[in-house]
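pinging the channel bc i need a second pair of eyes. not urgent but kinda urgent?? the chain im working w is below, pasted from the shared doc
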Amino acid sequence: MQLQMTVRLPDELHQEILTLANRLHLKRSDIVRIALEKFTKDNLDNDTSPYERVKDLIGSVSTGIPDLGQEHRKYLLERIKKDA
């Protein structure tokens, strides 16, 4: 059984939906349905840990300082003194 929902939209968003619907030859309700399905899928299926979401980024930037992990305090203090 399909349920009906009434939603108030700003004029600008309504115009964007109308433009997309015309361009894609779909009904406005189809555009809204697709957007809601994507939004709910992206947010409900996102029960991964913060680490899982960024693990591909870890180590992707190099500082050129080989011991930064062990000596981070030393380098931070040097930077603060330099900028002071």
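so The first helix runs from residue 11 to 24. and The chain has a mean pLDDT of 89. — does that match what u expected or am i reading it wrong
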